[in-house]
Design brief:
The chain is mainly beta. The chain contains one helix and nine strands.
């Protein structure tokens, strides 16, 4: 049986959520895995209201939250949810050790 470790959310991701006021509006960053995309699975990242059954990851002050539904959680075992800023833009990114390949778009992967 494979050991499934929870995903990790970086301080940079929580800081960005605070900058955009997600916690102030009661929203959380939702990270989900769906079928589709050019590699078989794709990430769906949005600001959303937490719902029953979500696994919640909170910042150290408890103000900012990242939520993942129970179906998506195994696909994100031991992943790192981060925020990056580059010349071409800024975005939340997922470093997923379970992905065997990924697409150049950064949101599509296969397992």
């Amino acid at each position: 049986m494979d050991l499934q470790l929870p995903p990790k959310v970086t301080d940079r991701a929580f800081t960005r959520l605070a900058e955009i006021g997600a916690g102030d509006s009661g929203k959380a960053l939702r990270v989900a895995v769906e079928g589709g995309g050019c590699s078989g699975f794709q990430y769906d990242i949005s600001l959303d209201d937490p719902t029953d059954g979500d696994v919640v990851f909170e910042s150290s002050d408890g103000h900012e939250r990242v939520v993942i539904d129970e179906v998506s959680l195994p696909f994100l075992s031991n992943a790192v949810i981060d925020f990056t800023e580059e010349l071409i833009g800024a975005r939340f990114v997922i470093e997923n050790p379970n992905a065997t390949s990924s697409c150049g778009c950064g949101t599509s992967f296969s397992m």
